[in-house]
Specification:
The complex is a heterodimer of chains A (152) and B (368).
Chain A (H helix, E strand, L loop, with lengths): L38 H9 L3 H8 L10 H16 L6 H6 L3 H17 L3 H28 L5
Helix pairs in contact in A: 1-2, 2-3, 3-5, 5-6
Chain B lengths: L6 E4 L7 E4 L5 E5 L5 E7 L2 E8 L6 E7 L4 E6 L4 E7 L2 E6 L8 E6 L5 E6 L4 E7 L4 E7 L7 E6 L5 E6 L3 E6 L23 E6 L4 E6 L5 E6 L3 E6 L8 E4 L5 E6 L4 E6 L5 E6 L2 E7 L14 H11 L17 E10 L2 E9 L3 E6 L9
Antiparallel strand pairs in B: 1-28, 2-3, 3-4, 4-5, 6-7, 7-8, 8-9, 10-11, 11-12, 12-13, 14-15, 15-16, 16-17, 18-19, 19-20, 20-21, 22-23, 23-24, 24-25, 26-27, 27-28
The chains are: A mainly alpha (152), B mainly beta (368).
GO biological process, one term (chain B): Arp2/3 complex-mediated actin nucleation
Protein name (chain B): Actin-related protein 2/3 complex subunit
Keywords (chain B): Actin-binding, Cytoplasm, Cytoskeleton, Repeat, WD repeat
């Protein structure tokens, strides 16, 4: 047996990486990385009870393109905090003022918040938000959360 | 079926994946999610199955009927495409060398009918043309940079450019110029140099692209994708930017231009929806459908009960009819009457086995 047969290092080579036609879905969407909303702005707006501005600020720069799940979770928790401080009766009016882009982003946050937040009371409120978002943006907004590859 | 404002027929062959009309609209070729292609002819007020073409081994995925040369091209999951010519009362198949390793997904004749394009799951499009010397349909392939299954294709009216929508969330415009059959193309808003497989434009979507369509002039391109959106590229303004309209509906699987400024789209929402070009983007106009009040009220009869048992496996008289005309996903929209830049009637086929003929002239009755 030839001597170099004992060297099996070549088996650990990722040959697919050398295939020029190999499709890597991670190199999609390399525009702005999106570092998440500015927490300080959001908290200060919340402390002065300007909830609508706080929500708008929280929906800025969603960290959709980052691979760091912690950043995404942190942003989700921040948005959930804003959503949670709303009174159920104010939700409809606020949702009516959102743009299409903000509506889709908020829908993503609502789904993610349902996934990671353990509190019952918040989930109840999130379902409220969900219902209002569907009423305003239709089933299309749910489809967009499911079909979009840039997830939270 | 004259009681409702929209004519429709259930051909009784199950879910219809695609259909194609002949030139004078007296015959329609239909594929019923099986390996067979049925050709129906309008005789004595009903559609009669006059031919069944069963050369494919697996379900047929695409059909197109060239009006002037009267040839049908079909493609299927069995990786093949056939060109069918009508000769002495029979449709004769000719195998095409499409060279696929995966299923063929869609097929379309070019406007001059001297070549056709076939999309496939092997991440490429074959442009097929007839080689006289060999008496054979041969193909040239567009591969790069398509990175997933090709879902849909559409020809530019100049017979050269081809729009391709794929599962890699992109719509692209390629040159499909074949020097053996085409004259030199003249410059247009999409570009001036058009060697074969040249990429003329690339546009993003947030879902699989279900269908692409060039406008009658070829200067605009519309596409629908699985994120419930419809997008527009206007090459007269800027051929690098697409304007996307996010809709509130379920995703569209089919789109077609009715005039240079208006589009109809349909899909998982069961009703066709009209859009117009406004400013840079698109605007939703209305949903087309039979008004719900005009729907025949459920007749309390033994007949209705047996129909229910038969169709819905329900043992009681329950009303499971939706308020829309189509009872399931619309799979395709085809033009029926009118000029390419002013379509007066179009047809839709769907998973519910219906073919519906929508008359836009008398559309006041069907706008919901």
């Amino acid at each position: 047996m030839a001597k170099n047969m004992q060297n099996t290092g070549y088996r650990k080579l990722d040959v697919d990486a050398y295939d020029p036609e190999n499709y890597n879905e991670n190199d999609e969407g390399v525009d702005t990385p999106g570092l998440g909303p500015d927490e300080r702005t959001v908290s200060s707006l919340m402390s002065t009870n300007r909830l609508e501005d706080a929500l708008r600020a929280a929906l800025q720069n969603p960290p959709l393109n980052t691979k760091n799940q912690a950043v995404k979770d942190k942003a989700t928790q921040l948005v959930a905090k804003v959503l949670g401080s709303y009174k159920a009766s104010d939700i409809e009016a606020t949702v009516k003022k959102l743009t299409d882009e903000e509506g889709d982003t908020l829908m993503k946050y609502v789904y993610k918040a349902m996934e990671i937040s353990p509190e019952n009371a918040l989930c109840q409120l999130l379902l409220n938000w969900h219902a209002q978002l569907v009423a305003r943006f239709g089933l299309g907004s749910i489809i967009r959360v499911m079909s979009d590859r840039r997830r939270l | 079926m004259s009681g409702t404002p929209v004519q429709h027929w259930n051909l009784g062959i199950g879910p219809i994946s695609c259909h194609a009309w002949n030139k004078d609209r007296t015959q329609v070729a239909v594929s019923a999610s099986s390996n067979e292609i049925h050709i129906f002819e309008w005789k004595n007020g009903d559609w009669i199955n006059v031919h069944t073409l069963d050369e494919h081994d697996l379900p047929v995925t695409g059909l197109d009927w060239a009006p002037n040369t009267n040839r049908i091209v079909s493609c299927s999951q069995d990786k093949n495409a056939f060109v069918w010519t009508f000769d002495r009362g029979h449709w004769k198949p000719e195998l095409v060398l499409v060279r696929f390793q995966r299923a063929a997904t869609c097929v379309k004749w070019s406007p001059l009918e001297n070549k056709f394009a076939v999309g496939s799951g092997s991440k490429l499009v074959s442009i097929c043309y007839y080689e006289k010397e060999n008496d054979w349909w041969v193909s040239k392939q567009i591969k790069k940079p398509i990175r997933s299954t090709v879902n849909c294709i559409d020809w530019h009216p100049n017979n050269v450019l081809l729009a391709v929508g794929a599962c890699d969330f992109k719509t692209r415009v390629f040159s499909a110029w074949i020097k053996e059959v085409d004259d030199k193309p003249s410059p247009n808003p999409w570009g001036s140099k058009m060697p074969f497989s040249q990429l003329m434009g690339e546009y993003n979507a947030s879902g699989w692209v279900h269908q692409v369509a060039f406008s009658p002039s070829g200067c605009r391109l519309a596409y629908v994708s699985h994120d419930s959106s419809i997008s527009l590229v206007d090459a007269n303004q800027d051929n690098t930017v697409s304007h996307t309209l996010r809709t509130t509906h379920l995703p569209f699987t089919s789109v077609r231009w009715l005039t240079e400024n208006s589009i109809v789209a349909a899909g998982h929402e069961y009703s066709p929806i009209l859009f117009t070009v406004q400013g840079n983007g698109l605007k939703e106009v209305c949903v087309l459908d039979v008004p719900s009040a005009n729907k025949t009220a459920s007749v309390n009869s033994a007949l209705q009960m047996f129909k229910n048992i038969d169709k819905n496996a329900a043992s009681e008289k329950i009303d499971v009819q939706l308020k829309t005309l189509h009872q399931n996903r619309i799979t395709q929209i085809m033009p029926h009457s009118g000029q390419p830049n002013n379509i007066l009637k179009f047809t839709t086929c769907g998973t519910d086995g219906l073919i519906a003929l929508w008359d836009l002239k008398n559309n006041s009755a069907m706008v919901r």
